[in-house]
Amino acid sequence: MKITHAPAPSASLLPLQQHPAYARALRAGGRCVEELCLTSGTASGSALALRRSFAGFPVSLVSRGPILDRGAEQADAIGSVRGHLRGAVIFSPDHPPAMRGLVPLMTAAHVAEWRLHSNAADLRAALRVKWRNRLTRAEAEDTEVRVSPMPADPSHWLFAREAALRRRRKYRALPAWLAVAYAATSPDLAWLFEARKNGETVAGMLFLRHGGAATYHMGWSGDEGRRVSAHTLLLWRAATFFAQRGVERIDLGTVDTESSPGLARFKLGTGAKLRPLGGTWLAPPWLQAC
C-alpha cells in the first residue's frame, strides 16, 4: 500500500490511540509520532505510530491499529507500515492478524464498549437491573454533579488522588502528563465529571473524547463517594452528556473478570459489550512489506 503522512479522519469512530487528538497530546509531551495514510486503489487505512529507541535501536508501537477502511486488507496494511518504519514494530490491532512472520508477545485483551442512544429512556432501559437499581439509589442521594472541561493542570486534585490509589492498589495506567497534554491541545475534548456531597468532592471521572467516541481515562472515589455510588451516577451522567453531543460509543477500557471481577461487573452492568482485541505482535525488521 502507498503511504503518505496525514492524520486519520477525526470524526470517525477511531480508538483513542489512533486518533489525531491523541497524536497531538503525544507530541506536546515530547514524543515522536508518525501519522500515516495508507492507500491502494480504492482501499484505504491509517496508522498512528509512536516511535521510540531502546539502547539505540528504533522500536515503534502501533496500538489499536492499523485502521482499515474501504476493503483494505490487514496483512497489506501491517506489511506496508512495517516496511515504512525503521527497526522493530509492535502492533496491537483490533483483530488478530492473519499474517506470517509476526511474533506473538501478548494474548488478546478484552474491552468493554458501551453503545449510546440519543434517547435517555432507551439508554436507561438497556442497563442491567442491578446497575439501574444502584443508579436509582445514587440519584436519591442528592449528590451534586459538576461537568466541566478538564484543566490542563498537572497539580489537579484528580491526578494526585488517582496516583495515590494506583500505588495502593498496584495497578498500571497511562501517565498523568498524557491527560494534561490532551486537555492542553484539545481543550474541548477532555471532560471532568465531579460528584460533590455537603460541599466536598467525593468522586471524579475523566473522559477523553475522540471523534464519535469517548474513552473513560481515569477516576477516583473516596469512602463517601463509594457509599453513595458516585461513580455509577457520574458514568450515567457522562453517557447522557456525550449522547446528547453526538457521541456513539464510550470505551470503558479493558475487562479482566479474574483479577478485577467487581470492576468488570461495574463496566458490563451498563450494557456494554465485551469484545476481544487482536493481541500484541512483534513485526521484526526483516519482515517485508506486502
Protein topology:
Blueprint: E1 2-5, H1 20-28, E2 32-40, E3 43-54, E4 57-63, E5 67-69, H2 74-84, E6 88-92, E7 103-106, E8 110-115, H3 120-125, H4 129-139, E9 144-149, H5 157-169, H6 176-185, E10 190-197, E11 200-210, E12 213-221, H7 223-227, H8 230-243, E13 249-254, H9 261-268, E14 273-276, E15 280-283
Parallel strand pairs: 4-6, 12-13
Antiparallel strand pairs: 1-2, 2-3, 3-4, 3-5, 6-15, 7-15, 8-13, 8-14, 9-10, 10-11, 11-12
Helix pairs in contact: 1-6, 4-8
CATH class of the largest domain: Alpha Beta
Largest sheet: 8 strands, mixed
Q: What is the general shape? A: globular
Taking Cα atoms only, what radius of gyration do you get, to the nearest Å? 20 Å
Order of helices and strands: EHEEEEHEEEHHEHHEEEHHEHEE
Protein name: Acetyltransferase (GNAT) domain-containing protein
Keywords: Transferase
GO molecular function, one term: transferase activity
Domain BioF2-like acetyltransferase: 132-257
